[in-house]
Amino acid sequence: MIKHHTQENRDYVVKLVIEEGRKISDLSYELEIWESSISRWVKAYKEKQAIEKGTEKYVTPSELKNMENMYEKSTVIFGFIKAHKVEFSIVM
């Protein structure tokens, strides 16, 4: 039985390989996708990027973690500022 993968799925797997540094063999085992398929997707992606620069559509797990950390830090800072606005003459 042949599995067909959506372009969204392919792009996500490619991003894991290129930006996260994941091994194709590991992803192949975890996602049950042929290594040759992932290799073709990565090659096509690199060729496309050489021709044109695209915008990011997907967020990898490490990018998500970084965004969550930045959000938590900004929430703490904003809370501190709001709690001490009288002391520092901050107008909100």
UniProtKB/TrEMBL annotation:
Q: Which Pfam families match?
A: HTH_Tnp_1
Name of the protein: Transposase
* Organism expressing this protein natively: Viridibacillus soli
What taxonomic ancestry is recorded? Bacteria, Bacillati, Bacillota, Bacilli, Bacillales
